[in-house]
C-alpha cells in the first residue's frame, strides 16, 4: 500500500533543472541570440595607457555606408560604478583614458567588416601622460593622480587596530613574519562577454540580454548611462557561461550595447573577443602582504599585525570593498582578538580589478596559513594541532563584530585528517613528496546591502493557477552554480510536492522580482530563505482552502505534499483539487516571500568600512593537498586533494560537491600556473594559451567531505558552498611543497621557474654551510 | 570568393553559398542556425568549438567551412535524434559534468569521439581525449565521471 | 562572427598544381591543418589573398616504407596528421622520439588535423608577436612584423622569436631529409638545412616552395631515442624547451649521442660538441656534464611568460632525464 508522505527534495543529489538544455546545446547564451536585422557592435580601444583625449573625430566612420551608429562619451549621460560611493567609470572614456584597452568609441554596422573599417576611420587625438604600472610607481613622490579626488593614487587606505596587539605580540613565545607577493589573476570564465540589445524605437524601450551575474545593477547603470527611465528598460539574463566575479558589476560592453542599439534604433549584438574579455578584467589584484603573527608554545595565536597593498587598476570598481575584505576576514575563522591592519588600494594604469571568487580574503589567508605552518614546524607542532588550538565556539561575535552562529571547522579538520591518512603518512612519504593543509572560510552573502533601498534582501514570487503548476519567479541569477535548482528544491521541500510541478523563471526584470545578483555567495542563503517564506505563505493559503473544503479547522489539515487530508481516515484532496478550491473567489494565486538579514549581522562600526565582512553565516573549509615534485624540472604534480567544506545543510549535495571541487581547482590554477602580466600596461596574458588555466591532464582527483554545521538562520540550515574552499588551496599547496622539498614559497603562482629558483637557492645554502663545516673541521 | 558548400550537418544534407573565408564555427552558428557550438577563445585554445568531422574531433574555429566539402559534420545540436538525451548527454546532466554549460558542447563532442572509437576507456584515456577542452567550473572531476557513466550505459 | 581577409581557397589535387596556384597568387599561403596559419590570419599577422589547400593531394598523405633488404627508408607525406604519426607502430619501433614528439603536440583535437609539414614549418613565436592587431599596433609592432624594435632585446636588430615545433628536433636525430617542390621542380635537402637562425625568416624555403615529404633512412637496428617536452600545463602548450635524445651504447660506453633542441632558439638544432662523450661511461657525472652542455646551448630569450633561465635549465634537465631513461 502506498504510504502518502510529503516528497523530500533537499539533502538529495539533484541534477540541475536546466541541465538538458546545456547538454543539447539548446541553452541560449548572450552571443547565441540572432536576429536578421541585428547589427554588429564593435569597440575602439585606447592604445595608450594614460592620456587626455583631445579630440575624437567620428565623421568618416559615421559616413561609411553600412554604419548605423557611432557612440562616444558624448552619448553617455553619466558615469557608473558598482559602489554608490565610487562611480568614476564611464562606458566610453570621458576626457581621459587610463589604461590600454579602455573603450573610447563604438560602432554598430551591418557586418563585421564594415564595423572594423568604421573603427579604423575614427581618429582619436591623445595627449599622453605619465603612466604607472605598479603600485610602487603610482604611489611614488611626484606621480600624477589618475583621479583628481584620489590624491597619491590611493583609492582607499584602511586601518584598524583592535584588541591590544603590542602587548599580546610580546606575550607570544614565537613571533614570525612573512612577506608574500601574489600575482594578479583573471576569472577566465569560458564565455567571453556579450550583450544582445534591442531598442524598440516606437515605444522607446530597451530590452537587453547581457552576460551578467547582476542584471539589477546592469539595469540601474543602463538607466544612468543612457538617461532612460528604469521602467523603459528590460533586462533578461540569458544562460551565463561562468562568472566567478568578473560580471558582478556592470561592464562597459553591457552599456555600449544599449547605447548603440538606441542610436541605431534597432538591434545590436556586441560580442567581445577573448582578448577583450581579459582587458575588461575585474580580476583579483596583484597583492603584497607583510604579516607578523605571535604564537604560544601550544599553538595559540596571540596577535596578528599585517599590511596589504593591492594594485587595483585604473578605476574604482569594487576596490574599496576588496581592500576591506583583505583586513576584516582575518577574523571569523579562528579565536583571534588582537589584530592590526593597514591596507592600501592603489590606482594604476592597468585594467581595473574587481571581485574574484573569495574576493579580498584570498591572499590574506594565503599569508596567514603559510606563516602559521612554518611556525608550527618551528615549535614542533602538528599543523592540525595549531588549528585546533585556536577554534572558535559558536555562537560568538568576533572582535570586529562579525556574527558567527554556526561553526563546523573542527569537523572539517577531523574529516580531512582522517580521509588523507595524515597522521599515518605525514613525514613518511617518499622523497620529493609532501602533504600540506590549510583552512579557509567565506561569507554567505554580505549582510548589509550596497544600494540601501529599504527593500528586503531577497524576494520570491510564487504563482499558482488552475493547472496546478507552480511558477517560481526569482531575480536570482543562475550562472551555472545551480541557484534555480536550489530555489525549486526549497519550495518543493516546504510544500512536500513533486519538484516537477515547479518551473523556475529567473532574471527577467519585466516578470521576476528584483534580486541583487549572484555574488558574495548570497543566493542560497538569502534567496533560499525567501523561497521558503514564499512556500510557507503558499502552503498557508492552500491549507485554508483545504480546511474550507474539508470543513475542518486549518490546524487540523494534514499537508502531505501531493495530498491534503483531515486525518488518517480521510481520503483527502489532491494538490490539484486544493488549488482549484483556493482559486475559488480569488483567481490566480500570487504569493510572495521575502528575506531580510538581521541587523546584528551587518558587521561592525569600530573603523571606517567595518561593515564589510558582516554576514549571516560563514562557511568553513579544511583541505589537505598531496604533491610530488620533480627535483630536476621543479614541476609540481598535485596527486590528490581532500577537502571538507562546512556548508550547513547541503540542500543539493551533488551541486555542493561540484562547487567545492571547482573552487579548489580554481585555487590550484592560481597557485600553480595562472598569472596576469603587463608589458607597459599591455596584457601579455590575454589569451587562453598564455593565461594558463589547468587542463584535465594536470587536474587532480578531489575528494569532498560535506560537513553540515547547520546555521540556525540558513534555509534548512544551509550556508554557502561556492567560495570558501578556493582560498585554502593556495597555502595548502605551498605547505605541501615545504613538506616535500623544505622550501617555502612566498610568491604565487608557484610556477616551475619560481620553485627551481627556491630549490637552487636552498642547494647553494646547503653547499655553503657544508663548506663552512668542512673548513671548521 | 564564394563557393557552394555541400556537406552533411547532423545527418541532414545541406547546400549553402559560403564565402571562402568563413570559419566552420560561424557557418554552423549563423548559416545553419546551430548555436550549440560555442566560441570561447581567439583560436584553438579552449576546445569549446569542438565538433566532429567524419567522426574525428576538430576545432570548428580553426577550420574553414570551404574545406569541408562532402564532409560529415556533427554538432551537439544534432546528437540526440529521437528527442531523448543520449548516454553522454545524460552523463553530463545527471552526474553534473555540466555547471555553466558553456564548455559542455565541446566536451560532449570530444567525449563522443572517444566513446565511438573506445567504448570502454580508462580514466587516463578519458583525460587524454579531453586534454584540449578547458572547463572553468567543474575542475573536471565530474566530467570524467560523466564519461564513465556514459560508457557504462552504452555497455549495458 | 570573425573577420578574416577576403581569401580564395584553392583545392589542387597534385603537388604541381598546388605550386602553380601559389605562384599565381599575389599573396598566397599553403594551408594544411590550419592550426598555426589560421590563428595568425585571425590575428592579422598573415593576410593572404589565396589559400592553397593541401589536404586533397594524395601523395602528401602517404606513409611509405621502402625496404631494400639491408636498409631502406621511410617516407612521410607532409599532410600526414600528427595523430597518424603518433599512432604509427612502425615509427614507434624505429624512431620513438618522432612518435613521442608528435604525440605531445598541443592537444588531441589539434593533432587530428595538424600535419607533419605544418609542424616542421611552424612560424616562430614570441609573446610580442603572437598578439592581436590592436595589441601589436599599440606596441609599435616589432622587428619580425611591421616594426623596428625587437621588444625582447631592444638594443639590437636581431629577432629572437623561437621555433616551437616538437617534431623537428626528433627528426634531426635521424638525419631526416625533406623533399621540397617549387616552380623550378623538386629538390631534397637535409632537414637541418630547412632552417636558418633568424626569427624573422627562419625557413629557407624558396618562393612558392612547399614541403612535400620527409624521408628518413632506416637503421639496421633501431637506435634508442626519446623526446621530452617542458611545458607548464600538461597539454595544449608549446614547448618551453623540447629535447630529443638519441643514444647508442656499446656495453657501458656511449657509442653515439645526439641531442636536438626546440623552443629555445629561432630554429631547431642539434647540440654541438657532444663528441667528447663518445667512449665514456654513462655514469651520473657524465650525464650531469651532458645536462650542462645542453643547457649551455639552450640560449632561450624572453619570448614567453616563462623566464629564459628556467627554459635553459630545463632543457639540460630533460636531456639528462632522457639519457637516463634510455639506459
Question: What does this protein look like?
Answer:
The complex is a heterotrimer of chains A (777), B (156) and C (327). Chain A is an alpha+beta fold. Chain A is 29% helix and 24% strand. Chain A folds into three domains: 19-25 and 463-596, Aldehyde oxidase/xanthine dehydrogenase, molybdopterin binding domain (Aldehyde Oxidoreductase, domain 4, 2-Layer Sandwich); 33-129 and 191-242 and 247-280, Aldehyde Oxidoreductase, domain 4; 286-448 and 602-760, 2-Layer Sandwich (Aldehyde Oxidoreductase, domain 4), CATH 3.30.365. In chain A, a hairpin with a 5-residue loop joins strand 19 (458-464) and strand 20. In chain A, helix 6 (215-226) crosses helix 7 (252-264). Chain B has 156 residues and is of the alpha+beta class. The longest helix of chain B is centred in the last third of the chain and has 15 residues, at 141-155. Chain B has two domains: 2-78, Beta-grasp domain (Ubiquitin-like (UB roll), Roll), CATH 3.10.20.30; 87-155, DNA polymerase, domain 1 (Orthogonal Bundle). In chain B, helix 2 packs antiparallel against helix 5. The longest helix of chain C is centred in the last third of the chain and has 19 residues, at 308-326. Helix content of chain C is 28%, strand content 21%. Chain C starts with 7 loop residues before the first strand and ends with a helix. Chain C is built from eleven helices and twelve strands. Chain C is of the alpha+beta class and 327 residues long. The chains are: A alpha+beta (777), B alpha+beta (156), C alpha+beta (327). Chains A and C meet through helix 3, strand 29 and helix 19 of A and helix 8 and helix 11 of C.
SSE layout:
The complex is a heterotrimer of chains A (about 775), B (about 160) and C (about 325).
Chain A lengths: L18 H6 L14 E7 L5 E7 L1 H5 L3 E5 L24 E2 L5 E7 L2 H10 L1 E6 L6 H5 L14 E9 L2 H6 L3 E9 L11 E7 L4 E6 L4 H12 L6 E3 L16 H13 L2 E5 L2 H7 L5 E10 L5 E13 L5 H10 L9 E10 L13 H19 L3 H6 L7 E2 L5 E2 L4 H11 L2 H4 L7 E11 L14 E7 L5 E5 L8 H13 L6 E5 L16 H28 L7 E2 L3 E3 L7 E2 H9 L5 E7 L22 E12 L6 E11 L6 H20 L5 E2 L2 E2 L18 E6 L16 H18 L5 E2 L3 H25 L1
Helix pairs in contact in A: 6-7, 9-10, 10-18, 14-15, 15-16, 17-18
Chain B lengths: L1 E8 L2 E8 L4 H8 L18 E4 L2 E4 L12 E3 L12 H8 L9 H14 L5 H7 L11 H15 L1
Parallel strand pairs in B: 1-5
Antiparallel strand pairs in B: 1-2, 3-4, 3-5
Chain C lengths: L7 E3 L4 H10 L3 E4 L5 H7 L6 E4 L9 E5 L4 E6 L4 H6 L1 H6 L1 H8 L4 H6 L2 H5 L12 H6 L28 H6 L4 E6 L2 E6 L19 E8 L7 E6 L10 E10 L2 E10 L6 E2 L13 H14 L10 H19 L1
Parallel strand pairs in C: 1-3, 2-3
Antiparallel strand pairs in C: 4-5, 5-8, 6-7, 6-8, 9-10, 10-11, 11-12
Helix pairs in contact in C: 10-11
Amino acid at each position: 500500500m502506498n504510504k502518502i508522505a510529503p516528497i523530500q527534495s533537499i539533502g538529495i543529489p539533484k541534477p540541475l533543472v536546466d541541465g538538458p538544455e546545456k547538454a543539447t546545446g539548446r541553452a541560449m547564451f548572450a552571443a547565441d541570440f540572432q536576429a536578421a536585422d541585428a547589427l554588429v557592435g564593435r569597440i575602439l580601444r585606447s592604445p595608450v595607457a594614460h592620456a587626455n583625449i583631445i579630440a575624437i573625430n567620428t565623421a568618416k566612420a559615421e559616413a561609411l555606408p553600412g554604419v548605423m551608429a557611432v557612440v562616444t562619451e558624448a552619448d553617455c549621460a553619466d558615469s557608473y560604478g558598482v559602489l554608490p560611493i565610487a562611480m568614476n567609470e564611464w562606458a566610453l572614456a570621458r576626457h581621459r583614458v587610463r589604461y590600454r584597452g579602455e573603450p573610447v568609441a563604438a560602432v554598430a554596422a551591418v557586418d563585421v567588416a564594415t564595423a572594423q573599417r568604421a573603427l579604423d576611420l575614427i581618429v582619436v587625438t591623445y595627449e599622453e601622460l605619465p603612466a604607472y604600472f605598479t603600485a610602487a610607481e603610482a604611489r611614488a613622490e611626484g606621480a600624477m593622480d589618475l583621479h583628481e579626488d584620489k590624491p597619491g593614487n590611493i583609492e582607499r587606505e584602511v586601518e584598524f587596530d583592535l584588541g591590544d596587539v603590542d602587548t599580546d605580540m610580546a606575550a607570544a613565545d614565537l613571533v614570525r613574519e612573512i612577506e608574500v607577493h601574489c600575482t594578479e589573476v583573471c576569472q577566465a570564465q569560458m564565455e567571453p562577454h556579450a550583450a544582445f540589445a534591442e531598442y524598440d524605437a516606437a515605444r522607446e524601450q530597451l530590452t537587453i540580454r547581457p552576460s551578467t551575474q547582476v542584471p539589477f545593477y546592469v539595469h540601474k547603470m543602463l538607466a544612468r548611462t543612457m538617461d532612460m527611465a528604469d521602467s523603459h528598460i528590460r533586462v533578461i539574463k540569458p544562460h551565463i557561461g561562468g562568472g566567478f566575479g568578473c560580471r558582478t558589476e556592470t561592464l562597459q560592453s553591457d552599456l555600449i550595447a544599449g547605447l548603440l542599439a538606441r542610436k541605431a534604433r534597432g538591434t545590436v549584438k556586441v560580442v567581445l573577443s577573448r582578448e577583450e574579455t581579459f582587458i575588461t578584467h575585474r580580476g583579483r589584484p596583484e597583492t603584497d602582504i607583510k604579516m607578523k603573527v605571535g604564537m604560544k608554545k601550544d599553538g595559540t595565536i596571540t596577535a596578528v599585525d599585517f599590511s596589504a597593498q593591492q594594485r587595483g587598476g585604473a578605476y574604482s570598481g569594487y576596490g574599496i570593498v576588496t581592500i576591506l575584505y583583505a583586513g576584516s576576514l582575518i577574523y571569523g575563522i579562528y579565536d583571534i582578538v588582537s589584530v592590526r591592519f593597514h591596507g592600501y588600494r592603489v590606482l594604476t594604469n592597468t585594467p581595473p580589478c574587481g571581485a574574484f571568487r573569495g574576493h579580498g580574503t584570498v591572499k590574506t589567508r594565503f599569508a596567514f596559513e603559510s606563516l602559521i605552518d612554518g611556525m608550527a614546524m618551528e615549535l614542533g607542532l602538528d599543523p592540525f594541532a595549531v588549528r585546533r588550538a585556536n577554534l572558535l565556539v559558536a555562537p560568538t561575535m568576533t572582535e570586529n563584530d562579525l556574527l558567527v552562529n554556526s561553526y563546523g571547522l573542527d569537523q572539517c579538520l577531523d574529516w580531512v585528517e582522517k580521509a588523507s591518512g595524515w597522521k599515518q603518512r605525514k613525514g613518511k612519504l617518499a622523497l620529493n613528496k609532501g602533504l600540506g593543509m590549510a583552512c579557509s572560510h567565506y561569507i554567505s552573502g554580505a549582510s548589509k546591502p550596497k544600494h540601501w533601498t529599504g527593500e528586503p534582501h531577497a524576494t520570491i514570487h510564487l504563482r499558482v493557477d488552475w493547472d496546478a503548476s507552480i511558477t517560481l519567479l526569482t531575480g536570482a541569477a543562475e550562472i551555472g552554480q545551480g541557484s534555480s535548482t536550489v530555489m525549486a528544491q526549497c519550495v518543493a521541500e516546504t510544500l512536500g510536492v513533486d519538484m516537477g510541478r515547479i518551473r523556475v523563471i529567473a532574471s527577467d526584470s519585466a516578470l521576476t522580482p528584483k534580486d541583487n545578483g549572484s555574488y558574495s555567495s548570497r543566493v542560497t542563503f538569502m534567496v533560499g530563505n525567501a523561497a521558503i517564506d514564499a512556500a510557507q505563505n503558499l502552503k498557508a493559503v492552500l491549507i485554508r482552502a483545504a480546511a474550507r473544503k474539508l470543513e475542518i479547522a486549518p490546524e487540523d489539515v494534514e499537508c502531505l505534499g501531493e495530498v491534503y487530508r483531515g486525518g488518517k481516515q480521510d481520503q483527502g484532496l489532491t494538490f490539484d483539487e486544493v488549488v482549484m478550491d483556493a482559486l475559488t473567489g480569488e483567481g490566480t494565486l500570487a504569493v510572495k516571500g521575502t528575506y531580510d538579514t538581521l541587523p546584528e549581522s551587518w558587521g561592525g562600526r569600530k573603523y571606517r568600512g567595518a561593515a564589510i565582512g558582516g554576514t549571516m553565516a560563514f562557511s568553513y573549509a579544511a583541505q589537505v593537498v598531496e604533491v610530488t615534485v620533480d627535483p630536476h624540472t621543479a614541476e609540481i604534480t598535485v596527486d590528490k586533494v581532500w577537502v571538507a567544506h562546512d556548508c550547513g545543510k547541503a540542500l543539493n549535495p551533488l551541486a555542493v560537491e561540484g562547487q567545492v571541487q571547482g573552487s579548489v581547482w580554481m585555487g590550484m590554477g592560481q597557485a600553480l600556473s595562472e598569472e596576469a602580466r603587463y608589458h607597459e600596461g599591455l596584457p601579455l596574458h590575454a589569451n587562453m594559451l598564455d593565461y594558463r588555466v589547468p587542463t584535465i591532464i594536470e587536474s587532480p582527483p578531489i575528494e569532498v567531505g560535506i560537513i553540515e554545521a547547520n546555521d540556525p538562520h540558513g534555509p534548512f540550515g544551509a550556508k554557502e558552498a561556492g567560495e570558501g574552499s578556493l582560498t585554502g588551496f593556495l597555502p595548502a599547496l605551498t605547505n605541501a611543497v615545504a613538506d616535500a622539498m623544505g622550501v617555502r614559497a612566498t610568491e604565487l603562482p608557484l610556477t616551475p621557474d619560481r620553485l627551481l629558483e627556491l630549490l637552487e637557492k636552498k642547494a647553494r645554502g646547503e653547499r655553503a654551510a657544508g663548506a663552512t663545516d668542512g673548513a671548521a673541521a | 570568393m564564394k563557393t557552394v558548400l555541400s556537406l552533411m550537418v547532423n545527418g541532414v544534407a545541406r547546400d549553402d553559398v559560403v564565402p571562402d573565408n568563413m570559419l566552420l564555427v560561424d557557418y554552423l552558428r549563423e548559416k545553419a542556425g546551430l548555436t550549440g557550438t560555442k566560441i570561447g577563445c581567439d583560436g584553438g585554445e579552449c576546445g569549446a568549438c569542438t565538433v566532429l568531422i567524419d567522426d574525428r574531433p576538430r576545432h570548428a574555429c580553426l577550420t574553414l567551412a570551404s574545406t569541408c566539402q562532402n564532409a560529415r559534420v556533427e554538432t551537439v545540436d544534432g546528437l540526440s535524434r529521437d528527442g531523448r538525451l543520449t548516454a553522454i548527454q545524460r552523463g553530463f546532466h545527471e552526474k553534473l559534468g555540466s555547471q555553466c554549460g558553456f564548455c559542455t558542447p565541446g566536451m560532449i563532442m570530444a567525449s563522443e569521439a572517444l566513446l565511438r572509437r573506445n567504448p570502454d576507456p580508462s580514466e587516463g584515456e578519458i583525460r587524454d581525449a579531453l586534454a584540449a577542452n578547458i572547463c572553468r567550473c567543474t575542475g573536471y572531476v565530474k566530467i570524467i565521471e560523466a564519461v564513465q557513466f556514459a560508457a557504462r550505459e552504452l555497455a549495458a | 562572427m570573425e573577420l578574416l581577409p577576403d581569401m580564395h581557397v584553392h583545392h589542387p589535387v597534385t603537388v604541381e598544381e598546388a605550386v602553380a596556384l601559389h605562384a599565381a597568387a599575389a599573396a598566397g599561403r599553403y594551408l594544411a591543418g590550419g592550426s598555426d596559419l589560421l590563428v595568425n590570419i585571425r590575428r592579422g599577422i598573415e593576410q593572404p589573398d589565396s589559400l592553397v589547400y593541401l589536404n586533397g593531394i594524395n601523395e602528401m598523405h602517404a606513409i611509405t616504407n621502402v625496404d631494400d633488404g639491408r636498409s631502406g627508408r621511410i617516407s612521410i607525406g607532409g599532410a600526414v596528421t600528427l595523430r597518424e604519426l603518433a599512432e604509427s607502430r612502425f615509427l614507434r619501433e624505429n624512431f620513438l622520439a618522432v612518435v613521442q614528439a608528435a604525440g605531445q603536440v598541443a592537444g588531441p583535437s589539434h593533432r587530428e588535423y595538424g600535419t607533419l609539414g605544418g609542424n616542421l614549418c611552424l612560424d616562430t613565436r614570441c609573446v610580442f608577436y603572437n598578439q592581436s592587431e590592436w595589441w601589436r599596433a599599440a606596441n609599435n609592432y616589432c622587428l619580425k612584423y611591421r616594426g623596428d624594435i625587437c621588444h625582447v632585446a631592444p638594443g639590437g636588430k636581431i629577432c629572437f622569436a623561437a621555433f616551437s615545433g616538437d617534431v623537428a628536433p626528433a627528426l634531426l636525430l635521424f638525419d631526416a631529409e625533406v623533399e621540397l617542390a617549387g616552380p623550378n621542380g623538386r629538390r631534397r635537402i637535409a632537414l637541418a638545412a630547412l632552417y636558418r637562425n633568424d626569427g624573422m625568416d627562419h625557413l629557407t624555403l624558396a618562393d612558392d616552395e612547399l614541403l612535400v615529404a620527409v624521408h628518413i633512412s632506416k637503421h639496421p637496428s633501431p637506435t634508442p631515442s626519446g623526446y621530452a617536452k617542458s611545458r607548464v600545463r600538461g597539454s595544449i602548450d608549446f614547448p618551453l624547451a623540447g629535447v630529443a635524445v638519441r643514444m647508442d651504447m656499446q656495453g657501458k660506453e656511449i657509442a653515439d649521442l645526439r641531442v636536438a633542441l626546440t623552443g629555445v632558439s629561432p630554429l631547431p638544432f642539434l647540440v654541438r660538441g657532444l663528441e667528447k662523450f663518445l667512449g665514456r661511461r654513462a655514469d651520473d657525472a657524465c650525464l650531469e656534464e651532458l645536462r650542462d652542455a645542453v643547457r649551455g646551448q639552450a640560449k632561450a630569450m624572453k619570448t614567453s611568460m616563462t623566464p629564459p633561465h628556467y627554459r635553459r635549465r630545463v632543457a639540460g634537465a630533460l636531456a639528462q632525464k632522457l639519457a637516463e631513461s634510455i639506459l
